[in-house]
Design a protein that fits this description.
7-stranded mixed β-sheet, 123 residues, 11 strands, single chain, mainly beta
């Protein structure tokens, strides 16, 4: 089970930090990822990170503004979002995959998904 938190309503230029707790982190879980979906748009990969190595992947639209991290002891991944823009608005989902590759997980998506947390950025 994945539980996201940390969403909210902020103004353009502000920051938010999302958290994703993985309730049962088995050895099969290798990579955790963040995706988002805006109204009327396809789901988009935001960032992914390999639990063991910390290797990361970022979508082009968030590079330099977002940072992904993980705390294996807490079974938690974080998405620090800085300099938020109106176009960052959407529902942010957490996913976990069993392939130790951030690029693969961000391309294919993971095996399990959370229910999402809403992020709204106003101008």
């Amino acid at each position: 089970q994945l539980v996201e938190s940390g969403g909210g309503v902020v103004q353009s230029g502000e920051s938010l930090r999302l958290s994703c707790v993985v309730s049962e982190l088995s050895t099969a879980v290798k990579t955790i990822g963040w995706f988002r979906q805006a109204p009327g748009k396809d789901r988009e990969a935001v960032s992914c990170v390999v639990f063991s190595s910390g290797e990361t992947y970022y979508g082009d639209s968030v590079k330099g503004r977002f940072s992904v991290s993980r705390d294996s002891a807490k079974r938690t991944a974080y998405l620090q979002m800085n300099n938020l823009k109106v176009e960052d608005t959407g529902i942010y989902y957490c996913t976990v995959g069993n392939v130790p590759s951030p690029g693969y997980t961000c391309y294919k998506g993971g095996n399990y998904w959370g229910e999402g947390t809403q992020v709204t950025v106003s101008a």
